[in-house]
């Protein structure tokens, strides 16, 4: 049976990459793109997520699944998917927006579609690699980001808008208020990156691991490939210089114009008796990794009889299933160490 899939934001960096990979792996799927710009194509639906009325065009195309790859601050697409019983995967939301969307979905008494929130780091890969949370009391995520990598406009805009705003990590199930690029420490990465200075960084996994998977201690820190850039961002934050810059200038600082580079992250998970370290490297960078993981989620939803309800993407998988699926991509390397 042919599946009709709508990728809203399908002309952006992540959306277009999702489209390409999905088409390559599933040529039988019928793919549509949702865009604000009119195009001379039967596969492009002209709509604007900020204008709920424009979403009515979706009803004309017998869509089975909506993939949201653009910022939908008012959750119009989520409301539309629930009202029209259309399956939905969202990979775009920063932590505050994810909390709001999850609250909206949770208030629905009779969800008649599958709602999948996949806004964790790289489309929810972190929780998917951990998977078995029994006995885990601490998770620390360390991210290496290359300034030569590709990044979507929404990432730059999020950092520009939120770099000076406090967010929380969790210690003994209590929120601890922190800010980006402060509280530095040294961390030694695998894959020949070596020792780097890492700083506070806000990703939705902080909320997901604590509130959804009941991990009492959760933190995330990151570093840039450029040691100078990393230290300058820490200095800007400590001196409160970000507060003095206009939004436009902050966007310029966080914009990435690279042509692609490797992306790396590492997860340290602790129980009372052991420490488990999981390392991942994608040679094709974060946009390709995010899109590939999203395609795995799409295939999972369409090829398996999940009950209607609200999910986080890692909840679609059995232990080791996401790891094995990711490793089918030869550009991805994953290692696990226990002690």
TrEMBL record:
Classification via InterPro entries: NAD(P)-bd_dom_sf (IPR036291)
Signal sequence bounds: none
UniProt protein name: Saccharopine dehydrogenase
């Amino acid at each position: 049976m042919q599946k009709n899939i709508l990728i809203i934001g399908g002309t952006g960096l992540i959306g277009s990459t999702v489209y390409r990979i999905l088409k390559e792996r599933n040529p039988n799927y019928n793919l549509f793109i949702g865009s604000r710009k009119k195009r001379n194509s039967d596969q492009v639906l002209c709509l604007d997520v900020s204008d709920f009325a424009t979403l009515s065009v979706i009803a004309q195309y017998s869509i089975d699944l909506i993939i949201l790859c653009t910022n939908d601050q008012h959750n119009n697409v989520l409301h539309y998917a629930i009202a029209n019983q259309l399956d939905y995967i969202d990979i775009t939301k920063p932590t505050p927006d994810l909390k709001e969307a999850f609250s909206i979905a949770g208030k629905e008494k009779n969800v008649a579609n599958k709602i999948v929130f996949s806004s964790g780091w790289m489309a929810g890969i972190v929780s998917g690699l951990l998977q078995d949370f029994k006995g885990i009391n601490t998770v620390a995520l360390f991210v290496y980001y290359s300034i030569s990598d590709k990044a979507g406009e929404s990432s730059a805009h999020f950092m520009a808008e939120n770099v000076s705003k406090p967010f929380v990590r969790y210690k003994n199930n209590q929120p601890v208020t922190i800010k980006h690029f402060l509280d530095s420490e040294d961390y030694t990465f695998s894959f020949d990156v070596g020792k780097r200075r890492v700083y506070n960084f806000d990703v939705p996994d902080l909320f997901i691991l604590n509130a959804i998977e009941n991990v009492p201690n959760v933190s995330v820190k990151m570093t840039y490939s450029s040691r100078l850039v990393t230290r300058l961002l820490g200095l800007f934050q400590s001196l409160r210089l970000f507060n003095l810059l206009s939004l436009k200038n902050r966007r310029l600082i966080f914009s990435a114009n690279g042509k692609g580079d490797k992306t790396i992250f590492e997860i340290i998970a602790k129980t009372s008796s052991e420490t488990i370290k999981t390392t991942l490297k994608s040679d094709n960078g974060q946009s390709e990794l995010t899109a590939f993981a999203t395609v795995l989620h799409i295939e999972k939803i369409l090829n398996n009889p999940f009950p209607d309800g609200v999910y986080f993407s890692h909840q679609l998988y059995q232990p080791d299933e996401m790891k094995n699926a990711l490793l089918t991509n030869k550009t991805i390397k994953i290692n696990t160490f226990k002690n």
